[in-house]
Amino acid sequence: NVDLAGGAPLAGGTPLPFR
């Protein structure tokens, strides 16, 4: 999963500036 918050790494995801 990718973060939908804006840089916060979710469980099983990576810290990406998605939003």
What can you see in these coordinates?
- This protein is low in regular secondary structure and 19 residues long.
- 0% of the residues lie in helices and 0% in strands.
- It contains no helices and no strands.
- The radius of gyration is 6 Å and the shape is elongated.
Total beta-strand segments? 0
Q: How does the overall form come out from the CA principal axes? A: elongated
- Helix and strand content put the structural class at little secondary structure
* Strand residue content: under 5%
How are the secondary structure elements laid out?
Blueprint: no helix or strand
Put the structure in a nutshell.
With 19 residues, the protein is low in regular secondary structure.
Keywords:
0% strand; little secondary structure; 19 residues
